[in-house]
Structures are given as structure tokens and as C-alpha cells.
Amino acid sequence: MTKRFKGIALLLVVMMFATLAAACSNNGTSGSGGSVSVGIVLPTKDEPRWVQDEQRFKDALSGTKYNTEILFSQGSSAKEKENVETLLNKGIKVLIICPQDGDAAAAAVEEAKKDGVTVISYDRLITNTDAVDYYVTFDSLAVGAAQGQYLIDHSKGSGQPLYLYAGAATDNNAFLFFQGAWEVLQPKIADGTFKIANSSEAEKLKDTKDLTRDQMSSIIGQVTTNWDPNEAKNKAQTHLTAAAADMKGDVVILAPNDGTSRSIADVFGSDSAITSYVITGQDAEQASIQYIIDGKQSMTVFKDVRTLVKDAMGMAVEVLDGKTPETTGSYNNGSADIKAKQTDVIVVDKENVKKELIDSEYYKASDFTGL
Ligand code: BGC
Asked: According to CATH, what is the number of the domain 140-303+347-367?
């Protein structure tokens, strides 16, 4: 190597490090600068689901020219609004936001819209505002329907106790999941396959297949977990303490997601009067995959976050390129029809866990024991 060449090589290495350092100094930022400026706001780091999304965003963005920043709202709508303002001050052109509370997020996105920013509601719909341009989501009705159908397909005889649990009433998805499940479960309650164990409001509505939002609210109000595993655990304990002997034995449990499913399963699993239980979930969280392998959780609904991230970022890039993103339908958010891109979901249980989650490289076999 000549001296001059060595000098140039050294300069290049220094420049490379300078670029890397600049990229890393911006907290939560991926990419090494460039024309795209996208702000991403996620609900909380306390649930593995959203840490999964963060990781998938980072994976999708590594090595691209897109300049993005991911902020977490830690379960607080005030923090969420502050995050949006921070990103607006940084000049973002597109905001990808998963609201902590669908209604409360309206004020934050209205501010973004005023700044000319394109707003993409991510996974959860922001409600009762027209300041949302697009919605990228999984088919949440199908998630609930798959959970309900799994309980039906794995029921034993008739008159089996059915325990219902739901997500947070501040999350529009909680209604979609519940509605999807109820529509398939209700005929099986009406024909005596299942008897409701823990909700007097659901019991009152047991002959109504198509529930209004208010009717769903009355049930969710009783059986909400608020998406909090601890709250789910406390509720399950209370329900089992109150349950008469004929509400025990072989039972089925509608649990809305993996985090709550594991804690409800722990409670039911340690009650000696529960002979067997079938319990649902969703998100394919790593801990729940281990529970499924161990026979402690029956199923999960796999929502491939890689697809959601790809769709959301694809949309953002199209907007930045001045194009109109492709959508597949729309969702009414109480104020407007929001153009939406929707992704299918996959039911996973012990039978297909390896095929769907390991062979698809979502997880590594070494992440689990007893596979
Ligand atoms: C998401 C689920 C998640 C739940 C709790 C829902 O809006 O769609 O995947 O488990 O929120 O965070």
C-alpha cells in the first residue's frame, strides 16, 4: 500500500466512524440520515408485544437510508402527546403511532395534522377524529373469531364453563377481538355447549349474537384485564374463589392476549378443582410459545409483526415519495372512514408451532426448551 493510499483509507475509516457515531447518538434512531423522516410512537416497553415491534422496526430499518426515531409512551397519553410534539419539533413528515388510548390520542394527531404531517394509525385505531390518514392493522375480528373457534373445537361435551376475559376498553381492538370471539361463541352458549361462568352482563346478553358497542362495553367493563397481567391474575383469582363447583372441572377460557393468558393460566392451573382448561392468547410472545410447548397455554394467534412493520414503513415511504399508498379497505373510527391495509393472522398451537414460528425464522429453536 502506498503512503497516499494508506492516508485515503484512514480518512475513509474515520469518516465511516463519524457517520456511525452520528447515527447512534440520536436516541432510538435507526438509519444513517437521508431524505426520509418518520416518527414512530409505541404504547409501552412493559409488554413484550411492543418491544417485539420495536425490534422489527429496527431490523427493517438497519442498512436503509431512512431516518426514523422510535419513542415509547409508557402507558401514558400525556407522555404520548409529548412524544408526538418532540417528533414534530424534529421535523417529521410521517407519524406512525400506536395509541395508548384511542380517544385520547386524537389531540396529539390533530396537532400533527396541523403541521402537515401524514398520520398512520398502527395496530390500534385512533378514534373520534378525522386527523388520521391511514390505518395499518391485523384482522382483529379474525383474531377474536380464531380464539372463539379454538375453544369450540376443543370443547368437551356440553355445559362446559366458559370464562371470559377482555382487553382494555380504551383500546378499539379490545372491542374487535371480543366481537369476533362472541360472534362464534354465542351460538354455542345458546345451544348449551358452554355456560358463562364469570359475567352477569354476558349472561344477560346470551341470546344476542350481534352486540352493540354499548352492550359490549357492559361485558368488557366486567371482564377487562386492562391488558395488565396482574389485573388479569387478580380477576381470575376472584372468579375462581366465587365459582360454584359446577363452574369448575373441565373449563374453557377466552383470554385476550398472551400476557394475560399466561397469568390467568397460572391461576387456573393451580386450582385443584380445575380438571383441565383450554385457554387462548395472541401475539406469539416468546414466553407464551414456551407455555404452549409445555402445555400450559393452548394456543396463540400469530400476528407476524414483520409484515405490519413492512406495510407501515412502505406506506410512509410512498407518502414521502408523493405517491398514494395502496389500501385494502377502510375502518370507521367514529368520525371518518380511515383507509386501511390489513394483514391476516395464523392460529398456532402445539401441532404447528415449529412450522409457523421456527421454520419461518420468527424465532430460533434455541430460544425454547422441549421443542
Ligand atoms: C394489540 C395486541 C396486544 C394488546 C395489548 C392490542 O391492541 O393488538 O397485540 O396484545 O393491544 O398491548
From this structure: 3.40.50.2300
